[in-house]
# Entry
Amino acid sequence: MNRVRISQMANKYMNHEMISLHTELPEFPDGRISLLYSVLSHQPNAVSHKELLSIVTSLVQMGLDTHDSVENALEPSDSGMRGMRAQQLKVLAGDYFSSRFYHLLSQAGQIETMRHLSEAICSINRIKMSFYGKVKQMKLNAEEYLHYGAEIKSGLFLSFTGIMSGLYERVWPELVERFSRCEVLLQELRKVEKKSSLEGSWGVWHILQEGTEEDRRLLEDRKEDYSLLLTMLHKYDVADKLGSLLRQSTSQLQALLQKLQSDKLMRELQPLIEPFLQATGQQRATVLKELG
# Structure
């Protein structure tokens, strides 16, 4: 099963006319879901349920991500009935996806899996509360930002460690954490490249940690000054630093895959790593061009 096939099967359970008409859903977590599916394919205790487990995990993840996309306050451009309806539907959509997850697992008699995923959801919510608390108090550094992001992304997938066997059980937690870290770094790099969603991004925390006292004060006092933020990101070579971190994490991820000692699995997982390799290659080429 390829990545497109997994998302198509999951979409069967997510598709709802009201949701699709009035709100925009987060990006489907196809990388982590494909990673889970491929590894489960090599587990004797899980291979017969790999499709079900991959689908329900994607439903839960989409539910969590949809809830996370709900704004605490409507932007001026989203005011009025239309904006309010979109926000309400995001909440309902997240609940709807979660209900589908419970329904599918109960139908299949997978009560233990339901328990493990439910516990993972509680753990993820605790991590989010800790993260938001540190953000509010301005007590977060750049590395902690990455760590929290990877923890939140990997939380559901770590719940499957118990059904892994032998070497896979030992490698899986680090593998999914490292993969999630690469995803976070890639997202942050794309934010800088597209110059979007930069407020509260890794670059901001990096400058607040490593910048001069004057620059830190400027950034704190003029948080909504977008042109200032872009200038700061360029001054502190944020894109270059993100590219370096992504290259480092991708190399560590590849080393972990080697430990699995399966050429077949390596071939299956290689397409999942390609976006990280391509992004770092493109970013390096851009830097060299600017230096030239």
Summary: The chain is about 75% helix and 0% strand. The CA atoms of residues 9 and 233 lie 40 Å apart. The two ends are 44 Å apart (CA to CA).
